[in-house]
Amino acid sequence: MDLCEGLPRLPIRLLFSAYACDPHRGSEPGVGWEFLKAALSVCEHVDVLTRQKNVQLIREALSDEQLVRCRLIGFDLGLGAKQWKKRLPLGTQAYYAAWQIRARSVVRRLHEQNRFDLAHHVTFATDYQPVVARALKGVPFVWGPVGV
């Protein structure tokens, strides 16, 4: 049962930052997917910033009605960064931190094109990592779910 079924959508544009978002996986990618579905049920428009590898999977899983209200933005670091991500100890955490920092310019450009009313940082949310959604000055910000 969808708890938001029948409720009117909020007339807001949401920046949804989900580094991990995959409709076919559990754990962190599953959290990103479930939160995205919830965001689309309550927001008029959602811009999703995620890894490039997730874009097509999300596009195929969303309904036509959802796709009209959802812009998918795939962003990754260069090939060299992807290689050290797999080879270094804590490579995934280092790649993630660099991804958050480098994505700031993408998010600022998106905000200039279509002003966001709200930003939500969803996956890999921890107290000690940078958060791209905070790059938007004056835009209310939701952080979480949060782990430690």
Describe the protein's architecture and organization:
This protein has 148 residues and is an alpha/beta fold. The chain is built from five helices and five strands; from the N terminus they run E-H-E-H-H-E-H-H-E-E. The protein has a five-stranded parallel β-sheet with strand order 3-2-1-4-5. Strand 1, helix 1 and strand 2 form a beta-alpha-beta unit. Helix 4 packs antiparallel against helix 5.
User: What shape does the CA trace take?
Assistant: globular
Q: What is the N-to-C succession of helices and strands?
A: EHEHHEHHEE
N- to C-terminal separation?
30 Å
Instruction: Characterize the main sheet.
Output: 5 strands, parallel
**How many strand units?**
5
User: Radius of gyration, Cα only, in angstroms?
Assistant: 15 Å
Helix/strand/pairing class, anyone?
Answer: alpha/beta
Q: How much helix, percentage-wise, in residues? A: 40-55%
**Estimated share of beta-strand residues:** 15-25%
Flag low-confidence runs: none
What's the number of helices?
A: 5
**Overall pLDDT metric:** 88
What is the strand arrangement across the widest sheet?
A: 3-2-1-4-5
List keywords for this structure.
148 residues, alpha/beta, five-stranded parallel β-sheet, 5 helices, 5 strands, 43% helix, 19% strand
SSE order and pairing:
Blueprint: E1 10-17, H1 27-42, E2 43-50, H2 52-61, H3 64-68, E3 70-74, H4 79-87, H5 91-113, E4 118-121, E5 141-143
Condensed summary:
With 148 residues, the protein is α/β, with parallel strands linked by helices. The protein contains five helices and five strands.
